[in-house]
Amino acid sequence: MNEAPASTTAVRPPPGPEEPAARVRDLRKVFGRLTAVDGIDLDVPAGSVFGMLGPNGSGKTTLIRMLLGLTRPTSGTVELLGRRVPDGLPAALPDVGALVEGPGFHPFLSGRENLRRVATLEPRLSAREIRPAVDAALDRVGLAGAAGRRYRGYSLGMKQRLGLAAALVVPRRLVVLDEPTNGLDPAGTREIRAVVADLRRSGVTVLLSSHLLSEVESVCTHVAVLKRGTLVASGELQRLLDAVAGGWEIGTTDVDGALRVLHGTGARARADDDGVVVGGVVVEDGPPAPELFAALVRAGIPVHGLRRQRPDLETLFTRITEGDS
């Protein structure tokens, strides 16, 4: 996919450093006897790629719908680009592009015709800007070659691409994507990741909901994890991964001697390809790392390298959602 040319449409400056792109406080949504979202406080930092994670039924889509004014909260407050929802939606929504719960287009129209209909509803596009904006959006998501085909003949992945093109037909400050790579092959998934990376470089905030942990880990700067309607973790992705401490890989040619010393300190250790591994994902497991290293040095064990293991997002997600039914 080629990078879309810059639009002539003016874009308002992004929120200031203290103003998140989206904010919810004590947000709650009840459907009959089901509490879908239960007292969530959350900030989506401006300029971030924010991943929304959680098992099925955790409340992700309901939360996104409340952010966009598509569902009214039972209680709590929502702000979108510094404006209260729902009263501030008319001012905020022109700066927001969204692909939520799959795109909806006319089956007998072509991809280009469908996207042109979307573009005519954009208040910031003049009549003469519609065609170049549509062409640029189609090219950006890799649909330029299939733009003349009827929508009913599109694959699921192509439909997802057209929905993303609709979200990007004009410059945005916030783009909300619910399962954007659903139905895409690996090449298509890489292209969508490239679009998200390009948006971030442009200063656009991206709120991304996905069940693919590898996708989130590869593109997101921040994450929030939901479980049964509650927020169980949120923040910068790297800090959350660092908080789930890994073990240490110790490079040594004297594996037997290192194991003997480490076991003598009360640490859990095992042999590895290039030495030994101490501990697991629990930082309090055994003596502190400096004591272990000092014990090896005192015993004359040659240490050629130290490397801290870092858990991946799947490990983090499993640990903080374990016990979910």
TrEMBL record:
- Ranges for the region named Disordered are 1-21
- Per the database record, which ranges form the ABC transporter domain? 22-253
Which SMART domains has this protein been placed in?
A: AAA (SM00382)
Pfam families under this entry? ABC_tran (PF00005)
Q: Which InterPro entries match?
A: AAA+_ATPase (IPR003593), ABC_transporter-like_ATP-bd (IPR003439), ABC_transporter-like_CS (IPR017871), P-loop_NTPase (IPR027417)
- Has UniProt tagged this entry with the keyword Hydrolase? yes
**EC numbers on record:** 3.6.3.-
For this UniProt record, the keywords arranged alphabetically read as follows: ATP-binding, Hydrolase, Nucleotide-binding, Transport
Keyword Nucleotide-binding found: yes
Q: Looking at its record, which EC class is this enzyme?
A: hydrolase
Which PROSITE patterns does this entry report, sorted A to Z?
ABC_TRANSPORTER_1, ABC_TRANSPORTER_2
Q: What GO molecular function terms would the record report?
A: ATP binding; ATP hydrolysis activity
Q: Which SUPFAM superfamilies match?
A: P-loop containing nucleoside triphosphate hydrolases (SSF52540)
Family classification: Belongs to the ABC transporter superfamily.
Its name, as the record gives it, is Putative ABC transporter ATP-binding protein YxlF
Q: Which organism is it from?
A: Pseudonocardia autotrophica
Q: Lineage in the entry?
A: Bacteria, Bacillati, Actinomycetota, Actinomycetes, Pseudonocardiales
**What gene does the UniProt entry assign to this protein?**
yxlF_3
